[in-house]
Amino acid sequence: MSKVIEGLLYSESHEWVKVEGDIATIGVSDFAQKEMGDITYVDAPEVDDEVEAGEEFGALESVKASSDLFSPVSGVVVEVNEALEDAPELINEDAYGAWIIKVRMSDPSELESLMDAAAYKGITE
Fold this sequence. Notes:
Blueprint: E1 9-10, E2 15-20, E3 23-28, H1 30-36, E4 39-43, E5 50-51, E6 56-62, E7 66-70, E8 75-80, H2 83-86, H3 90-93, E9 101-105, H4 117-124
Antiparallel strand pairs: 1-2, 2-3, 3-9, 4-6, 5-8, 6-7, 8-9
C-alpha cells in the first residue's frame, strides 16, 4: 500500500505539492516511486527557469523506465534539490522528504484543480 500524506495536494500525474505562502514544493508520490522501481537519475530544471501547470519540467529515470515530470503549478523555480544529483535513490527511500523543486507560484488558483489526499488515494488504490 502506497503512503499518501494528508495536507498535501496531488496531481493526476502523481506529483505532490506542499504549499507555504506563495512557494510550492513539488515531488513525486510514494505510488509513483514504487511504480518506477529504483530511481537512477533525476532531470530537474535550473533555478530561475519558468514552469507551467500541466507542462513537463523534468524526468525521472529508473532501471525499468523513464517518466516525465509535470508541474502542478505555474511559476519560477526558486530552489532545486541538489542532493538528488548524487543520490536519486532518496526518492525511493522517502518520496515525501525528497522534494524535487520549489516554485514561486504565479497563479495560486491553479491549486484548486489538484486533489486532496482522499481523492488521490481513490485513484491509486
